[in-house]
Design goal:
This protein is of the alpha/beta class. Helix 10 packs antiparallel against helix 12. It starts with 10 loop residues before the first strand and ends in an 8-residue tail after the last helix. The model has no long low-confidence stretch (mean pLDDT 96).
């Protein structure tokens, strides 16, 4: 494992937005501003090509370019995790090779999607994939998008291979998260990370290692402070910060009527903050002016001192 990534990985791991200017072109200036913004905000690692990074909407060439450019901009200052999720093991391994060649620290993989896999098939899939990877691997549970959830015992079985070093859960099911953590109690080096930022604080209080929180793209200091408050069990401060996280969840992520509203709202906010373009890869489109004004009002309600773009 790369020396700059400790085991278990802890803290706020930002699932990096993929800044775009069209369906197959990175907004490189925006990506640089975003990476510098996150590092200055104190996040503990970057996760490229996750759900927030629109990975499945991007060409393989663009996915590889996003890994290369993020590693180049990070300059080894913090760990970089690269998403390699795919229905094809061959394509996953190709992306993992790009990642290791450019200095990434670990790979991240969801369950294969489209044909739903059974738990024995998941164990077989990772038994085939993991030995081919040149990097350690985080398992990524995203049942709302992949239709399949890792059973806790399946996680334990897959993680018998020491190259499997952590788990990111985006099920939003805190009981399930605790069940996986209990199944992995004999692996103190195994990182347990939660996706939904609304429950990051409570999961860290209960022994989780951190959050992979999309809102950290906008306000990294807030999420790092939330993690630190939970880590030291400062319940008063944690409650105060949780209210801000819930305000973001209830406003910026809920403009619109479709599951894509989270990503549209996040990218729109980043555009208003002057960090990167708000172009979304097809089949989705950025917010129009009426929705943009709602996001503007939501940001100013969070902090009236923010200097926002038109």
């Amino acid at each position: 494992m790369n020396s700059k990534m400790k085991a278990p990985l802890e803290g706020i791991i930002t699932p990096l937005v993929t800044p775009l200017t069209d369906d197959d072109t990175l907004d490189l200036e925006g990506l640089e501003r975003l990476v510098e913004h996150l590092i200055a905000g104190g996040v503990h690692a970057l996760f490229v090509l996750g759900t927030t990074g629109e990975s499945q909407s991007l060409s393989y060439g663009l996915r590889a370019e996003m890994i290369r450019q993020t590693c180049r901009l990070a300059k080894g200052r913090l760990p970089v995790l690269a998403g390699i999720s795919d229905t094809s093991i061959v394509e996953s391994v190709k992306l993992a090779r790009v990642a290791v060649e450019n200095g990434a620290d670990a790979a991240v993989s969801t369950t294969p999607y489209y044909f739903a896999t059974g738990q024995p098939e998941l164990i077989e899939f990772y038994g085939h994939l993991v030995p081919q990877l040149p990097l350690p691997l985080f398992l990524y549970n995203m049942p709302s998008h992949t239709k399949v959830s890792f059973a806790p015992d399946t996680v334990r079985r897959i993680a018998e291979d020491p190259k499997v070093i952590g788990f990111k859960d985006s099920s939003a099911n805190a009981v399930y998260f605790q069940s996986v953590m209990f199944a992995m109690k004999d692996r103190p080096d195994f990182s347990m990370l939660v996706g939904p930022e609304e429950i990051t604080g409570e999961c860290v209080l209960m022994g989780g290692h951190g959050g992979v929180n999309g809102g950290a793209n906008m306000f990294p200091e807030l999420y790092v402070s939330l993690y630190n408050a939970a880590k030291r069990a400062d319940l008063k401060e944690l409650h105060r910060l949780q209210q801000q996280v819930m305000q973001i969840s209830a406003t910026i992520y809920t403009v619109g009527h479709h599951p894509s509203s989270y990503l549209k709202g996040l990218k729109c906010a980043l555009s208003l903050l002057g960090l990167c373009d708000d172009y979304l890869a097809a089949p989705f489109h950025k917010f129009e002016q009426p929705e943009r004004e709602k996001i503007r009002k939501a940001l100013l309600a969070l902090n009236p001192a923010l200097k926002l773009r038109p």
